[in-house]
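Renewal narrative, Specific Aim 1. Our central claim is that a sequence can be written position by position from structural information alone. The example that follows is taken directly from our test logs and has not been curated for this report. It begins with the structure tokens describing the chain, in the order in which they were read.
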């Protein structure tokens, strides 16, 4: 069980990003907004306290947006509030997303004091030209400085996010980014393929025919290189896009892939509580106003039936390299996945996309590359 908190503020919108976040332009208005937003988050947390029960919460993930833009003392006191008001386990994983241009050592020390023990740093690439091409505000050299700062501040687990398939990026650039990331010895690496989302600047450029992206083969080579270099350097490939040193898998993200419940707090946040999936409206002012009246403001709210819960468990679980445990599935739903998906599984095995090994159904090497096809097969 976990808690996700969405912090929808960024210093500037990156050209590829379709996450719910607002550019911070006016410091005075930002300070006021932060106070109102944190007050609304507190109200939403208290609302969930009454319906969540006492199931222990093992992880807190503060994502965004750019949580490291918030004044550290305010964020720290909000984390302490959550840990007091919700039934947190004794040693929860507490992750905060951060950008290299918005970190201070003093601020990080305040946050580690409040329990932040994992930071996910948006590194993305190690070439200034590529960073500029996607609208990132940091320079490559700030990534290393940030990692050292986080270590000095006592953060015990550091993730670097990297993106491949960027405009103008070559396989040589990608190799260089992986090498430079590895030289910093992070505990975890998330390596995502760029997707051009509608509504972003990159999408507008693509529509106008002026966006130069690496071709599909080159992107596949980048992913192959990732899957070779990182395990050779001692990182376990445990999810399609995620690699960790022993003992540093992201416990919070594992909740999602195991299709476990979590509370989502904040404007635009999604949650999964008592079999209901919900998402809050991605409207900052509307969110604050709703909680001033003590009311949730859902964009979507859906109670999942057992069939939907099974489908989601399979679709999410197949993202993990270990796959889905037959015994765990049976314990949870009272039937084997063979009873429910025999036809689909047989077909996927025939296509060489999945295999069953020691009680786990998992994707093959080929299935990893065609993960969308594997997932789609479990959607009834
Ligand atoms: S910093 Fe992150 S959340 Fe903010 S605009 Fe860039 S990618 Fe999006």
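The sequence written for that structure reads:
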């Amino acid at each position: 069980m976990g808690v996700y908190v969405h912090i929808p503020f960024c210093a500037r919108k990156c050209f590829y990003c379709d996450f719910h976040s607002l550019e911070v332009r006016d410091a005075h208005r930002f300070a006021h907004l932060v106070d109102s937003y944190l007050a609304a988050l507190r109200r939403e947390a208290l609302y969930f306290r009454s319906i969540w029960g006492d199931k222990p919460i093992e992880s807190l993930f503060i994502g965004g947006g750019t949580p490291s833009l918030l004044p550290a003392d305010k964020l720290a006191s909000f984390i302490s509030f959550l840990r007091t008001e919700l039934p947190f386990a004794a040693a929860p994983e507490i992750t905060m997303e951060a950008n290299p241009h918005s970190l201070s050592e003093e601020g990080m020390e305040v946050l580690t004091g409040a329990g932040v023990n994992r930071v996910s740093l948006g590194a993305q690439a190690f070439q200034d030209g590529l960073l500029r091409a996607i609208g990132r505000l940091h320079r490559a050299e700030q990534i290393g400085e940030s990692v050292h700062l986080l270590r000095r501040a006592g953060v015990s687990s550091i993730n670097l996010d990297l993106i491949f398939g960027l405009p103008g990026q070559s396989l040589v650039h990608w190799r260089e980014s992986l090498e430079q990331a590895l030289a910093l010895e992070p505990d975890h690496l998330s390596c995502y393929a760029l997707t051009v989302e509608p509504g972003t600047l990159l999408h507008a450029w693509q529509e106008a025919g002026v966006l130069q992206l690496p071709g599909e083969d080159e992107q596949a080579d980048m992913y192959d290189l990732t899957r070779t270099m990182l395990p050779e350097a001692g990182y376990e490939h445990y999810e399609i896009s995620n690699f960790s040193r022993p003992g540093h898998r992201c416990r919070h993200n594992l909740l999602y892939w195991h299709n476990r419940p979590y509370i989502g707090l904040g404007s635009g946040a999604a949650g999964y509580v008592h079999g209901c999936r919900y998402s809050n409206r991605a409207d900052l002012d509307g969110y604050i106003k709703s909680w001033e009246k003590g009311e949730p403001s859902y964009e979507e709210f859906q109670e999942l039936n057992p069939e939907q819960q099974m489908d989601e468990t399979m679709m999410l679980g197949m993202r993990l390299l270990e796959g889905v445990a037959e015994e765990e599935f049976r314990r949870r739903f009272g039937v084997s996945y063979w009873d429910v998906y025999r036809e689909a599984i047989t077909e996927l095995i025939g296509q060489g996309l999945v295999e069953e090994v020691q009680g786990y159904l998992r994707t093959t090497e080929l299935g990893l590359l065609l993960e969308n096809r594997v997932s789609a097969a479990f959607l009834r």
